[in-house]
UniProtKB/TrEMBL annotation:
A Pfam entry, by short name: Aminotran_1_2
Recorded family membership: In the C-terminal section; belongs to the class-I pyridoxal-phosphate-dependent aminotransferase family.
HTH gntR-type domain residues: 1-58
Taxon lineage: Bacteria, Pseudomonadati, Myxococcota, Myxococcia, Myxococcales
Protein name: PLP-dependent aminotransferase family protein
């Protein structure tokens, strides 16, 4: 009973057979059978003839003589049986998602469009053609073949003077920023961040002990005038920014502000932590180059992800940085994660080398552009009085402004109840205040589903608004 109560045996788990348990305990088989019958009578287990015994679906909530407490993992959530204190309270539990929930809170690639056959072939070759050359790689910077392929891609497609030795390949898009924060920042260091941005990025800096100082964002991106005034009172260690496609508002940092930001960084000797996401998808016009392509003073640290190409489940990211910082990133990576997945890294390198990733992106561009248009048209038709937006020229999500007086947070909550999940602007606000806007992804659903997103959002509008 105590093992069921504390969660070692879960509802539905098979219990040892009579003979096995009797031999292990050194008692007779009849003794075990009698004990199992008593436990079944008390509701702890269920016995089926010929199929053995399993833990009951809803075992009793307390042991004989004990106070009533939830069994198993439910008790663990209360911390009642934890023998040490946490530095801070745990994050609140995420509620179970509604059935048939349409998730458009982020712009993620559609996993149904994954070139699974090509990826499987590349992965198979990575494991079989030269397994020693793949799996014996123990390099905190990542597989050399992938770093070489990434460097060529950054030079050709993004104009960055990239070199393999200045790249660190990581798992996913969050780890590279965490490594940079770990290597570059320390307690009390000041980091300027976009006042509308990604909380996980701010958290990475804060966990390194840094102080995050918000700087406003407008239609031209990061407000460099405010940043310059901040420099008169603060010794900045870094500026964290998304200049090519600001997250979440998708605006681009203006050319004049780009030049001023780089000049300020060189003059005041702070690092520009440039985060790029979904830069692979540009539908109209020319995509601005990253700041790293215009960096002549060695101040830019470029953080990117490959997860937006195929699927967030394929966790690959990278950092391109000056050599002295790369040495510290190697050390931090070695201590925290040792190295990544060499087989996956080698497989992705092959897909880059043989042009499969470029072909995949060429196939995805018209699909995602069409889905953007479907969602934009549906929102304009059904929610034109509530939302205004400019269809983004690229990326996998749009930012919409809401009419004055509309309670966006209530709208998002009601949306969950009606089966659609989008992000209210407050989720991106550094100060946690209300923001008259919302972010909606369009890449991971087809036409009918995107029209249904708009329909459910209409149903979820707060009454009277």
């Amino acid at each position: 009973m105590s093992e069921i109560h504390r969660g070692r045996f879960r509802p539905g788990d098979a219990l040892p057979g009579y003979r096995t348990l009797a031999q292990g305990l050194g008692v007779s088989r009849n003794t075990v059978m009698a004990a199992y019958r008593e436990l079944a009578d008390e509701g702890w287990l269920v016995a089926a003839p010929g199929e053995g015994s399993t833990v009951a679906p809803t075992p009793p909530r307390r042991l004989p003589g004990a106070s009533e407490t939830p069994p198993g993992p439910a008790a663990e959530l209360t911390g009642a049986d934890m023998g040490f204190d946490l530095r801070r309270p745990p994050d609140p539990a995420v509620p179970d998602a509604a059935r048939n929930l349409l998730r458009v809170a982020t712009g993620n690639p559609d996993p149904r469009l994954l070139p699974g056959a090509a990826l499987a072939r590349a992965y198979r070759r990575a494991l079989t053609v030269n397994p020693r050359g793949t799996l014996a790689v123990d390099d905190p910077q990542g597989h050399p073949t992938l770093r070489e392929a990434l460097a060529r891609t950054l030079r050709a497609a993004r104009g960055v003077a990239a070199a393999p030795e200045r790249l660190v390949v990581t798992r996913g898009g969050q780890l590279p920023l965490a490594l940079v924060a770990h290597a570059l920042l320390g307690p009390g260091d000041a980091v300027a961040v976009e006042a509308l941005g990604a909380r996980d990025a701010w958290e990475a800096c804060a966990r390194a002990g840094a102080r995050c100082l918000p700087v406003p964002v407008d239609a031209q991106g990061l407000d460099v005038d405010t940043l310059e005034r901040l420099l008169s009172t603060e010794r900045l260690r870094a500026v964290l920014t998304t200049p090519v496609r600001q997250y979440p508002s998708v605006v681009a940092l203006s050319p004049e502000r780009r030049a001023r930001l780089l000049a300020l960084a060189a003059r005041h000797r702070f690092a520009v932590l440039e985060s790029e996401h979904d830069a692979e998808f540009q539908f109209e016009g020319a995509l601005p180059p990253p700041l790293a392509a215009e960096d002549r003073a060695g101040v830019v640290v470029l953080v990117g992800s490959l997860s937006k190409i195929f699927s967030p489940g394929l966790r690959l990211g990278f950092v391109h940085a000056p050599a002295p910082l790369v040495a510290q990133l190697r050390s931090a990576r070695d201590a925290l994660d040792r190295h990544g997945d060499p087989a996956l890294e080698r497989a992705i390198a092959e897909l880059i080398e043989d042009g499969e990733i470029e072909r995949h992106l060429n196939r995805m561009h018209p699909i995602y552009r069409h889905r953007r248009d479907v969602l934009a048209n549906a929102l304009s038709e059904h929610l034109g009085a509530a939302l205004t937006f400019d269809p983004p020229t690229g990326g996998l999500a749009l930012w919409a402004r809401t009419r004055e007086g509309l309670d966006v947070d209530a709208w998002a909550r009601r949306g969950l109840e009606r089966g659609v999940a989008f992000q209210a602007g407050r989720q991106f606000a550094f100060d946690g205040g209300a923001v008259p806007g919302l972010r909606i992804g369009f890449s991971n659903y087809g036409d009918a589903e995107l029209v249904e997103v708009a329909r459910r959002m209409v149903e979820a509008l707060p009454e009277g608004q």
